[in-house]
Specification:
By secondary structure, this protein is of the alpha+beta class. It contains 12 helices and 14 strands. β1 and β2 form a beta hairpin. It starts with a helix and ends in a 10-residue tail after the last strand.
Length: 505
């Protein structure tokens, strides 16, 4: 892959660079040629700006009866041809019409010359580069010199001198062209080679790091999940490397989470299967016994069997309900319907409902409420579910003669609710895990239980997992403190209901 990349992308970049250099070189030659030509034209005009004025001064042309004096024009022709054979001299009237001229081969195609450039030239005294009409080549502009012809203070015409005749232009263009090609060609070749070599070196350095990035991406794709791109460069390539490394970490973390979730799913299925099997086995066993002993079973035994079956069905119903509720919470299908209510009243109500169950196990429930606790803002039915699960958990793991305390306290903008028991407690290493679905207490904890069904007791079930999920959708957190063989304490806080006062207008 690296070889293919080097042979394709690298040389494509090299070819693009070479083409770019050729275009720049041609543009450079063209601009240089145009600049040099303009330089020579401006130089020629600047040096010969006073030529027309000297012509007028030395051999002033005269008019006889409105026509040019042929004798004076002959003087001009011989003088100009002797001074500079590359120029063309034209005599114009006040409207720019060509009255006579001195030009090679008498090849003149225009009858009139535009006066705008002539006036501008005379006003600036030839200090600005100005081009005028070329009478021999319509549409072509040439550098020139011009001067007025005055007689007794009155303008009678102009002398218009084209400083570069057609023959001079042809020769000059050939010379300048050859010079520019020699100069520009050498410069372009040297520039192209230098820029190309430097560019290829820079692109090689860039593509070398890019090849390393591609190699790391390929290794990651092949399963080397620990592969990372070394951050050596700066700019976009550094951003690319850092982004890939972060993405790789996210993928790795996601894979670990998926593995953990899959493990929890299997454990959940196993635990649910076990918990479902236990009541179903009890129900099946007692129903089968009642059928087999239908003729001999006493009314008292029948009642006892039916009560056992009823308890098993209730346990089964609770398990299925918990599973359904937890699934909806984890899927974010439950949205809390918050409203203001007094948490102390809810605590009293929950305590009263669990009083009979606690008394059957020789447990005491002690509600400790602060009458000054304000109303909280939460979903009352979901918070009641939290309190019920915490109380069920406390009753389940409390020993004979134990005390369960449920209390409320005001904490500024929050109200704290705490459920404490004097039961078996939780080992320190298990505390962070008790809110996981179907977490099993360690043997050290379950071993102290004085119950025939240790398996059922050792499984925390879904109650605490539901508590955690409900508080999470209330933006609250459940806290647990526990000491082995001394008891546990669960607490959480809810926000105080804030009365919004109407704004006076």
């Amino acid at each position: 892959m690296t070889k293919s990349f080097f042979s394709n992308l690298y040389w494509k970049i090299a070819a693009t660079l070479l083409l770019l250099m050729v275009v720049i070189g041609c543009a450079y030659v063209f601009i240089t040629a145009d600049t040099v030509q303009r330089y020579f034209q401006e130089k020629n005009q600047r040096l010969n700006a006073e030529l027309a004025a000297h012509v007028v001064k030395e051999v002033k042309p005269t008019y006889l009866h409105g026509k040019v004096d042929e004798a004076s024009m002959d003087k001009i022709m011989h003088s100009m041809m002797a001074i500079n054979p590359s120029i063309e001299v034209y005599l114009l009237d006040v409207d720019g019409n060509i009255l006579n001229y001195v030009a090679p081969y008498k090849k003149v195609k225009l009858d009139k010359v535009g006066l705008g450039p002539i006036h501008e030239f005379i006003e600036t005294k030839g200090q600005q580069f100005i081009k005028g009409d070329d009478p021999r080549n319509p549409g072509i502009k040439k550098e020139f010199s011009a001067a007025t012809i005055d007689e007794e203070g009155q303008l009678i015409g102009y002398v218009y001198v084209v400083l570069a005749s057609e023959e001079y232009d042809i020769a000059a263009h050939d010379l300048i062209g050859n010079y520019i090609m020699r100069l520009g060609g050498k410069t372009m070749i040297i520039t192209l080679l230098t820029a190309l070599l430097m560019g290829l070196m820079i692109f090689w350095l860039i593509t070398r790091y890019l090849n390393q990035i591609i190699k790391s991406v390929k290794r990651f794709k092949e399963g080397h999940l620990k592969e990372r791109i070394p951050v050596k460069s700066s700019g976009e390539l550094k951003t690319l490397a850092v982004t890939f490394n972060e993405m790789a970490e996210e993928i790795l973390n996601s894979m670990e989470k998926i593995k953990t979730t899959e493990k929890l799913r299997r454990e959940l299925v196993a635990n649910v299967s076990h918990d479902l099997r236990t009541p179903l086995s009890v129900i099946h066993g007692y129903v089968e016994t009642m059928l087999m002993k239908a003729q001999t079973i006493t009314s008292e035994q029948q009642k006892q069997y039916l009560e056992t079956i009823l308890k098993s069905t209730e346990r089964l119903k609770k398990l299925v309900g918990d599973l359904f509720e937890l699934s909806k919470l984890e899927a974010h299908e439950i949205t809390p319907k918050k409203e203001p209510f007094f948490i102390t009243e809810l605590v009293q109500d929950v305590s009263q409902k669990h009083k009979l169950i606690a008394e059957e196990k020789n447990l005491t429930i002690v509600p400790v409420v602060d009458n000054n606790v304000p109303m909280v803002h939460a979903d009352i039915s979901l918070i009641e579910r939290v309190l019920q699960n915490l109380m069920d958990n406390a009753i389940k793991y409390s020993t004979d003669g134990g005390v369960i305390t449920i209390e409320t306290h005001n904490h500024g903008n929050n109200v704290e609710v705490k459920v404490t028991d004097t039961g078996q407690g939780i080992p320190e290493e298990d505390i962070p895990l008790v809110f996981d679905r179907y977490f099993n207490l360690s043997k050290s904890a379950s071993g102290v239980l004085k119950d025939q069904d240790l398996v059922a007791k050792s499984s925390v079930g879904l109650g605490l997992a539901i508590v955690k999920k409900i508080l999470e959708i209330h933006n609250a957190t459940i806290h647990l403190t526990s000491k082995l063989n001394k008891g546990s304490s669960f607490s959480f806080r809810l926000p105080v209901y804030q009365v919004i006062k109407p704004v006076k207008v």
